[in-house]
């Protein structure tokens, strides 16, 4: 795919996620990594109206190479840290859903998962052995959130490709945009299941 085609694919996915109600009120952001560059959605834009030409290209240091007056996502630092931590990652998706926010309140630092079959679609063939989803505190400084993510995930041997930011939303990554889309759909599916379970878990019958 050319850079232009990649920008069009990213913009099209942004509109798709907006139509699902996952990027309300300018929330959420998406990026692709390609040939050492990051293509990312603009900051503060309505994600349901993004076109290919709105996508910014960043160099290896995160500096915009195009975009005119537009600024890259305010959460670029989180995307960059995930690309550094996971060299195979080619795409990052961040959404705001009520389910993610409620799920982020169900753990201090991590959300345990029931052994759901769909976890296989996030790269874990044995759902009962899947690690919990890490939860990071929200912070007015995105750089601080990014640092927390880096510090914790660099010491986590095989994390699920998903994290929660408390009171904020979900971020996933994948080797391709399609992989990241599958991961966000499955993570949000897990949150809906978890929220329908009693909390705190009742003591098991003996
Ligand atoms: C009204 S959303 C607040 C910022 C945010 O959390 C987000 O996901 C969107 O930020 P961006 O700079 O990528 O538009
Ligand atoms: Zn956000």
TrEMBL record:
<keyword id="KW-0456">Lyase</keyword>
<comment type="similarity">
    <text>Belongs to the aldolase class II family. MtnB subfamily.</text>
</comment>
<dbReference type="InterPro" id="IPR050197">
    <property type="entry name" value="Aldolase_class_II_sugar_metab"/>
</dbReference>
<feature type="binding site">
    <location>
        <position position="96"/>
    </location>
    <ligand>
        <name>Zn(2+)</name>
    </ligand>
</feature>
<dbReference type="GO" id="GO:0019509">
    <property type="term" value="P:L-methionine salvage from methylthioadenosine"/>
</dbReference>
<dbReference type="GO" id="GO:0008270">
    <property type="term" value="F:zinc ion binding"/>
</dbReference>
<protein>
    <recommendedName>
        <fullName>Methylthioribulose-1-phosphate dehydratase</fullName>
        <ecNumber>4.2.1.109</ecNumber>
    </recommendedName>
</protein>
<keyword id="KW-0486">Methionine biosynthesis</keyword>
<comment type="function">
    <text>Catalyzes the dehydration of methylthioribulose-1-phosphate (MTRu-1-P) into 2,3-diketo-5-methylthiopentyl-1-phosphate (DK-MTP-1-P).</text>
</comment>
<dbReference type="InterPro" id="IPR001303">
    <property type="entry name" value="Aldolase_II/adducin_N"/>
</dbReference>
<dbReference type="InterPro" id="IPR036409">
    <property type="entry name" value="Aldolase_II/adducin_N_sf"/>
</dbReference>
<feature type="domain" description="Class II aldolase/adducin N-terminal">
    <location>
        <begin position="8"/>
        <end position="195"/>
    </location>
</feature>
<dbReference type="Pfam" id="PF00596">
    <property type="entry name" value="Aldolase_II"/>
</dbReference>
<dbReference type="GO" id="GO:0005829">
    <property type="term" value="C:cytosol"/>
</dbReference>
<keyword id="KW-0028">Amino-acid biosynthesis</keyword>
<keyword id="KW-0479">Metal-binding</keyword>
<feature type="binding site">
    <location>
        <position position="94"/>
    </location>
    <ligand>
        <name>Zn(2+)</name>
    </ligand>
</feature>
<comment type="pathway">
    <text>Amino-acid biosynthesis; L-methionine biosynthesis via salvage pathway; L-methionine from S-methyl-5-thio-alpha-D-ribose 1-phosphate: step 2/6.</text>
</comment>
<keyword id="KW-0862">Zinc</keyword>
<dbReference type="GO" id="GO:0046570">
    <property type="term" value="F:methylthioribulose 1-phosphate dehydratase activity"/>
</dbReference>
<dbReference type="GO" id="GO:0016832">
    <property type="term" value="F:aldehyde-lyase activity"/>
</dbReference>
<dbReference type="GO" id="GO:0019323">
    <property type="term" value="P:pentose catabolic process"/>
</dbReference>
<dbReference type="InterPro" id="IPR017714">
    <property type="entry name" value="MethylthioRu-1-P_deHdtase_MtnB"/>
</dbReference>
């Amino acid at each position: 795919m050319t850079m232009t085609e990649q920008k069009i694919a990213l913009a099209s996915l942004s509109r798709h996620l907006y139509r699902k109600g996952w990027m309300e009120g300018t929330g959420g952001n998406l990026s692709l990594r390609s040939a050492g560059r990051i293509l990312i959605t603009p900051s503060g834009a309505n994600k349901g109206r993004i076109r290919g030409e709105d996508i910014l290209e960043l160099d290896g240091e995160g500096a915009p190479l195009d975009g005119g007056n537009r600024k890259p996502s305010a959460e670029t630092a989180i995307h960059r840290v995930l690309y550094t931590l996971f060299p195979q990652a080619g795409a990052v998706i961040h959404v705001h859903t009520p389910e993610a926010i409620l799920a982020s309140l169900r753990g201090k630092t991590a959300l345990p998962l029931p052994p759901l079959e769909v976890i296989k679609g996030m790269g874990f063939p044995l759902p009962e052995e899947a690690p919990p989803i890490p939860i990071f505190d929200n912070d007015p400084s995105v750089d601080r959130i990014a640092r927390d993510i880096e510090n914790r995930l660099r010491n986590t041997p095989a994390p699920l490709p998903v994290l929660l930011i408390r009171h904020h939303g979900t971020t996933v990554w994948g080797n391709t945009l399609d992989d990241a889309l599958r991961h966000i759909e499955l993570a949000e599916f897990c949150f809906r299941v978890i929220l329908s379970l009693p909390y705190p878990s009742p003591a098991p019958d003996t």
